[in-house]
Amino acid sequence: MQTHRHIRSFVLRAGRMTHAQQRALEELWPAYGLDPGVGALDLTASFGRQAPRCLEIGFGVGEVIGSLAESHPHIDYVGIEVHRPGVGRLLLRAAAAGLRNVRVICHDAVEVLTAAIQDESFDEILIFFPDPWHKKRHHKRRLIDPVFTATLAAKLRSGGVLRLATDWQDYAEQILAVCNADPRLHSLSDDATYVPHPDFRPPTRFERRGARLGHGVWDLAYSKRTAAPFPVPS
Ligand SMILES: C[S@@+](CC[C@H](N)C(=O)[O-])C[C@H]1O[C@@H](n2cnc3c(N)ncnc32)[C@H](O)[C@@H]1O
Q1: Is 79 in the pocket of ligand 1 (CB under 6 A)?
Q2: Which of the residues 67, 129, 196, 224 has an alpha carbon 20 to 30 A from that of 202?
Q3: Is the pTM of this model over 0.90?
Q4: Is the shortest distance between the CB of 175 and ligand 1 below 6 Å?
């Protein structure tokens, strides 16, 4: 996969990998893993069917995508995460539950979306608790910026939904400003700000840690506008 160099939104931590996670990465990858190569991935072929499709970016240890895939077998789920122990955790969960509707990509989501995912591939995109990069000098590392948001909009089908959450107010305000400014996104909040916590989103480890530290949570949701039809000359 060829892409331009860019500032990454993550720093790969060595992280402890359990023996089971390591084995999962070796043995379960053929069933669940997708390796972006040259050109776009064929997701329909990979799942062996055409079904509604949801993408989760930065799924951590897979609490959200795992629970959604278990409870919605008619929807296909693609997860992208760079942290290998977390990927191993999701593979173990998928195999234990016998899931057939999950595929996992272990690579930088910015590169994957830019180079390996066709436009209009997803009905829903989820990005929960992206790394907040608190310090001002690190804000350039934040995943959500105008360029990546435009890419996200391109990957959604018309009417598809982008859902985000953060526990960092200053990042919430940045996400709000960026998404509200994207001409293809339409806020699902009555006043174009935040939405209630969606029922389907189980609290993740990261969210629970923030709650213990007294952080608030800001949820956002946008739908992709239906492309305006070209005026037909009369
Ligand atoms: C703060 S954690 C939140 C994880 C999870 N969503 C949760 O709520 O527990 C952010 C995650 O995003 C992943 N991540 C950050 N940038 C990424 C990128 N460009 N591509 C894929 N994963 C990324 C990190 O490895 C990390 O696991």
Answers
A1: no
A2: 224
A3: yes
A4: no
